[in-house]
Amino acid sequence: MTDGDPDAGAVESAVTGPIETGGGPWDFPRHWIADVLASDGGAVHLRPIVPADADRIVAFHSKLSERTRYMRYFGPYPVMSPRDVVHMTTLDHRTRVALVALLGGEIIAVGIYEGLASLGRPESAEVAFVVADDHQGRGLGTVLLEHLAGAAAENDFTRFEAEVLTENRAMLSVFRDAGYQLTRSFDGSTVHVEFLIDPTDALRTVRNARELGSESRSVANLLRPSSVAIIGASTDPSKVGNALLANVISGGFTGPVFPVNAEARAVRGIRAYPSVRDIPDPVDLAIVAVPADTVGDVLQDCLTKRVKTMVVVSAGFAESGDVGALAERTLVHEIRAHGMRLVGPNALGVINTSPDVALNATLAPRVPGRGRIGFFCQSGALGIAILDTAARRQLGLSTFVSAGNRADLSGNDLLQYWDTDPQTDVILLYLESFGNPRKFSRLARRVSRNKPIVAVKSGRSSVAPSQVRRDSTLDDASARAVLEQSGVIQVDTIADLFDCATVLAYQPLPRGPRVGIVGNSTVLGVLAATAGERFGLRVVEQIDLGASAGADEFAQALHRVIADDGVDAVIAVFVPPVAVAADTYARALTEATAGADKTVVSTFLAVEGIPDNLTVRDESGVPTWGSIPSYPAPERAASALGQAWRYARWRATPESEVIRPADVDPDTAREMVRSAIVSTRVGTDETLAFDEADSARLLARYGVHVTDFAEVSDADAAADAAQSLGFPVAVKAVSSRWRGRLDGEGARLDLSGPGTVRAAFDELVALTGDRRLHVQRMAPRGVATVIRVRDDPSFGSLIAFGLAGATFDLLGDHAYRAIPLTEADARDLVAAPRSAPLLAGYRGEPAVDTDALVDLLVRVSTLVDDIPEVRELVLDPVLASGSGAVVLSGRVRVGPVPSRRDAGPRRLS
């Protein structure tokens, strides 16, 4: 499916079809195929080389300059021999792996590693790569190196080696800048380079920085185009293409605008062109508003024109059913294969209010003015309402993107852009689903440290139910965990979203929870105080001026509260008495708080004409920093302030590192898991349950010790096991039906002699009908808790903590966090359940050792992060007491590693 090349179909079917497992030329893992971004933001397709690439590799080699060939091959090497071509394109994908980067069906870079076992170094492989001259400097060498290292690690290599000409500084810089710790030795004209390929924190930091740069530049190509083409620009004012062109023109776009209409010579007085190919100048951004069944033709024109980004507002793709979903996948494949990015399909469009761009490429009839808020959403219809609401509330935006079906460019890409955009201070998200929640969590945690992110998670997908990927959505508890852990302010409604945005955009963050309330109504003050309590706000001063107070008294009271060092934030509440001009009180509020470094919000109840921002305006009349948010109800004012305080508290908390216990044995544990998967031939979508003995042995490798137990099948064996373990003991049923029952009928406890053990065994066999029971040494009494890890197909592993037992399960009183845990995450997890006070010494009971629970959570997190084949893990119960935390039962389920779209080398989701 690439430019009509007869070999392309064979390669494509090899890439996208079933992967053979017989050791043949197609025997490579599917996840080695990836779309990646170059450093300039352009997309590139990456995959293993195959024999059908023979002509491509010859053509690629022939176009290399003499200098590039010399640097790669240490000599002229003008022509590849047929033998070399076969050697290059036929590999075992284990000891020899080669990856090609393609653009428009042509190879533009090649990377290869070859094992060095024949030289007595089975752990090492020699790596080399070469990039076409026209594409050097785009970071493709680093991307190839990352993906080759990932493939090599899967094939049990631990070290790369390379021979590089001393004068080839560019190649040496690729190794150095990739973040690896290099060992170099010189031999005349060459440098021998060696480095370990295991990911380190330093390597991940470098990789993430490169990802940030390439993804933010990719979005900049969308939001800062130098020229725009409107494809489907219609002369009919009722058509979408006409409205798009009108909005681009009226918005004052600073670059050239090219209407594309096959029949009209001009649209809205601007010369039109039959196709994008006929436009004489370069086109950065194409806005497509044609029927879905003709988008493919438009795409070919854009590919020929080398358009950088397409925004497809046309509907009729994945949201419409199977046929549309196939068309959408084809569209994305072709766009990425030719280096482009896509917004949509079914998108509303994009906005950039910066004066040097002034782009309104949307269908919205009303858009807000310039501001410092970035907004991302999916739904087009909702996007129109959002833009209208923002305009009415005088909430200025820096940029806006409605991504529709979000087939390519997503909210994660926008986070990368806004993180680096000096014109954006606050980020708003309306999320119908998480495209890649694991990556979202990582990015949001970083971005939130500098810029607040406010999100509404609707729990709905814009794609038809039949087309929603199994891994596209998370349940509400998981979604809230992702957002909370990442510092994201989660709200329930669009109104709440704008309420928070207003205070974050125009006021300083609260320095603390102490609030002063000034107003002329006790009732309004009480309502504000009550609403703020659930966010941790404390009213330390409340001044009720009474209904007859004048504007001067209002201002004096505000001055007094603002000057009070014991007050961190101020809520002004006002309800007008009869025949009083409310605007004089609004003016008194703005003047009294001008220049204050404390957070101020207000409510003017039942007042017409008071704007949503009591304003400090710029020269264009847009509210700016220092404007005072005004809300229609005191509860909303207090809630917005409370959300800002929660965020300020999170941001002020020092960042906690992911900690790794020293006494762990990942190699042995990993071998136990993988051997079990291989020996039992667990299928791709299947899992294998370890028995409790094997589970305990695996857990012990990470310092998680299950209290000693033995499995027995007769009364005498039970007595012998008890004698060996040491009295007192418990005899317990193994079946899940009898575990954790409220009546405790599945266990007999505190058994102090062989006779009582035998009797207990016989009783439980008679009760349960199962002769397979456990004898376990008694543990100290404590509060029963549970730790669970479950695998989410798109996100990875989530860890849950709560009190154990059917009652807490029924109430759903468990807290969730994403793995890996920092120490702060683990402490938050222990404190998060509503029943957590039972751990802190409720009603005179002794407090438990929460440090022991934190240590246990960190160890479980480390195990699952190290060994992604662990798909489920349950410690139930864990008895927590003042002397520690004791695990009574551990169960593990393993299986092949599911797709991890934020693990390993960089790639587009």
Automatic annotation (TrEMBL):
Instruction: Please give the superkingdom of this protein's source.
Output: Bacteria
Membrane-crossing segments per the record: none
Pfam name, any one? CoA_binding_2
Chain intervals for the UniProt region annotation (Disordered):
1-23
Q: Which UniProt keywords apply?
A: ATP-binding, Nucleotide-binding
- Specify the ATP-grasp domain's residue ranges: 696-746
InterPro entries tied to this protein: Acyl_CoA_acyltransferase (IPR016181), ATP-grasp (IPR011761), ATP_grasp_subdomain_1 (IPR013815), CoA-bd (IPR003781), GNAT_dom (IPR000182), NAD(P)-bd_dom_sf (IPR036291), Succ_CoA_lig_flav_dom (IPR032875), Succinyl-CoA_synth-like (IPR016102)
Sequence ranges assigned to domain N-acetyltransferase in this UniProt record: 44-202
Q: By its UniProt entry, which PANTHER family does this protein fall under? A: COA BINDING DOMAIN CONTAINING PROTEIN, PEPTIDYL-LYSINE N-ACETYLTRANSFERASE PATZ
What name does the UniProt record give this protein? GNAT family N-acetyltransferase
Q: Which organism is it from?
A: Williamsia phyllosphaerae
Taxonomy of origin reads: Bacteria, Bacillati, Actinomycetota, Actinomycetes, Mycobacteriales
